[in-house]
Amino acid sequence: MEYLEEIKSIVNEYTRINEEIKILDMLVSQKKEELYLALDKNKVKEQTLIDKIKLETGEEPDYYKIILQLNGII
After folding, report:
1. pLDDT of 30-73, one tens digit each?
2. What is the reported pTM?
3. Following DSSP, what letter does each residue of 1-64 receive, concatenated?
């Protein structure tokens, strides 16, 4: 066939592109899992701090006041 080499080249390029997409999907999946684990760890730290504040003050933290302080408003 006259165009066999060109067809082969196109098919090979599709194969290469698909392999790279698979690698990217795997890397994204790994990073996503890593970030979800970090998020869970941070949520535990947050809850531990909230519990500590409740224990020391007997009250829930004032989230509005905390946001204002973080933003340098008060």
Report:
1. 999 999 999 999 999 999 999 999 999 999 999 999 999 999 88
2. 0.68
3. -TTHHHHHHHHHHHHHHHHHHHHHHHHHHHHHHHHHHHHHHHHHHHHHHHHHHHHHHSS---HH
